[in-house]
Every structure is written in structure tokens, then in C-alpha cells.
Amino acid sequence: MKIGQKEKLLILREQGIGEEILFSSVYQDIIEKFQNVIIEADKRLVSVFNRSFQNDIFVEDGYYSKNSKISEFDNVVYAGSIIKFFRKRKSDFTNSNYLIARNDIIDKYKKSDKNLLLIKVDKDRLFSGSAFVFFTNFGSQKALEIFDCGKASFVWHSKFLRRQIRVRGFTSVECDQASDEYYNSRSLRSRLGAWASLQSKPLDSRETLLNQVEKFSESLGQEPTRPKFWGGFRIVPAEIEFWAEGESRLHDRFLWTKSSVDGPWNIQRLYP
Question: Concatenated DSSP letters for 226-257?
Fold first, then answer.
């Protein structure tokens, strides 16, 4: 990829919000290299990126790409494609904090009683009639295993907050309407990727995958519908463990369990 430093460059968001945060690790390099760049981002990240990189070059997804304004640019690149030119090996990544939180939020967190954070929850209302939902290819390895056993678990960990949540529960397939709504909220490239990717199956090269994406781009156009082999799973929690880091590894652990979907939550403190 050859892009002149003075050419007008538009970078499009790709994948979900987590991937956008990962790709943003190269944005400072891009800003320094290119003099005229605009980056589209999920609306939830625009203010974060503009604050962190001290540059008002970030706009909401679709501001340029979904109308005729895209013709104003000399080059248009997806965020996931440009990262390889700046991070070619693991050592190219640093542990520096490149995203800046709001000072008022930091102050509020510092003033809070972190040791009570885990128990200031209304246990009778937590997840009442609700579930954790994720989306995937129904032919993927995890989907096949879930169809086989009807159960799933996941872990959410925050190094910054020094908190972790582990969830185990029973699964069901999400309804078509919810799956359609989530699918349509994704970037165009991600929606085409859902068609192109034979998730968890062997792939001979990245070029093959990209060629498949282009093929579906030509056949499905700008508004692809959700493929029937792709959708959501609901995880109705039966067990949730909250973990909070403590000094000298004397952590706080609370285990929430219930014997039935509609039953009450039982809470136990666990040894660390």
C-alpha cells in the first residue's frame, strides 16, 4: 500500500468495538505519518479517541462512507488492513496507555469504596429475565459444542479495574429479530465477513478470505442481509463469580448461584 503523506486518507471502522480499540493502538503513528487523515469510529468511541489523540479527526461511523462525501478522499482503507503496516511483530506493540479516561470519572472511581463495589447490587433484580448474548457462525467450533451440551461459560477481566467476572449458564438461540438488529449495527466489512468466513475451518491464506469478502461485496452490495447460519446465543446465568483484587493476594470472591432460572440468587463469599 502506497499512500502519499499529503493525500487525503479515510480510515473506516471494522469489526466490533473491542477490535476498534485494538486497532486504535496505531492511530498515533498514522496521525504522525499522514498529514490529512480522517478516521470513522463507533459513536461511543469518537469522544474517547479525539480526547486521547488530541486531534479532532475522528467522526461517527458512516459520516463519510455512507454518502457521496467518500469521493473527497484519495484513499480509503479499513482499520484492520492498515494495522499490519505499523505492527508487523509482537515486539512492535507496547504496554503504554494510549487511551485517556475522563478526569471526572477517574476522580469518582478513586473516591468510591472499592471494597463495597461488589455487594452494592440488588440481587433480586440482577439479570431478572435476562441473559448474556453473543453472536457467531452456527458452524463454528464453539457453536457446535454449545448445540451439543446446551451450556456455556465466559470470563470478563479488567486489568485496569482489577476486577473479574466469571459466568456459567444454560444456552438457547437468540431470536431472528435481535440477531438481525445486531448484524445490521456492524460495519459493512464485518457483515460481509460473516458471509465470507467459514469460521473455525482451515484457511490456506488470508488472501483467500479477502477474495471471498470481495466476492460477496459484489453479489450482496451495500446492504447485505444476515446469513441464516449466523446469529446469537443467549446465556442464562446459573452461576456468577465476582472477583476483586486484594493486597497480598487476599482477594474478595463472591459466588452467586441459583437452582432454577426464576429462582432467587444465593450468595457465598469464597476463600481467595
Answer: PPTTEEEEEEEEEEEEEEE--GGG--EEEEEE
Mean pLDDT throughout 206-230? 93
| Helix (DSSP H) and strand (DSSP E) numbers for the chain | 9, 10
Nearest residue to 244 via CA among 93, 71, 75, 112: 112
Given the residues 102, 206, 249, 269, select the one marked as catalytic: 249
Using the Cα atoms of residue 39, residue 42, residue 45 and residue 47 in order, give the sign of their dihedral. Answer: positive
Structural Rg of the chain based on CA atoms: 22
166 classed as catalytic: no
Q: Which CATH number fits domain 110-272: 2.30.110.10, 2.40.128.260, 1.10.730.10, 3.40.50.280?
A: 2.30.110.10
Taking the whole predicted model, whether its pTM rises above 0.70 is answered as no
Query: C-alpha grid cell for residue 100?
Result: 485517556
Q: 241 has which bridge partners?
A: 166, 255
